Amino acid sequence: MTQDPGIDSLIRQRIRGLRVAKGWSLDALAARCYLSPSSLSRIETGHRRIALDQLVPIARALGTTLDQLVESADDGDVVIRPQRDDVHDRTIWTLTRDRGSHGVTVAKMRITGPVRPLGAEGLGVHPGRDWFTVLSGTARLQLGERTILVETGEAAEFSTMVPHAIGPHGGPVEILIILDHDGERSHLRPGS
Predict the structure, then answer these.
(1) N or C, fewer C-beta in 10 Å, the chain?
(2) Buried b / exposed e across 39-64, counting CB within 10 Å, b at 16+?
């Protein structure tokens, strides 16, 4: 069985990089993945072929997955060029390349209008949690019966099973928001 030399080299670099980042010696990692330190050294330096039955315990010991350890490094264009999306009183820039591909969506929002209900019967509710930080201005978080003001530089995290809405207080507000799939659907694609 032949291995792609580029991927092979990348895997070796990742193993060594993760080991060094954890502050572990070859002996420490070898003990955690039940390999001899010399075998692990030869794997890292390219003097030994990497076998699948070795990669699984190495990945587990390093606190990563086999998929992450062997994934392609195809990240030629790492710059995200967000598209502006104006929806009612909000301007949204989605900052993740593939919406929700890693379980979360990151977006920048500029909100100019008052807190408005997300659902037809009042404030929005959906499974999960929302998190946002205020980049500029003051956000007015309506969380059930409570009104919470979140200032520039502050963040809020809350259960989204509580009826909620986010709006500006005393002028436009810009926030950076991290949403799970249900939050992304509710906040970035209302009505879907």
Answers:
(1) N
(2) ebbebbeeeeebeeebbeebbebbee
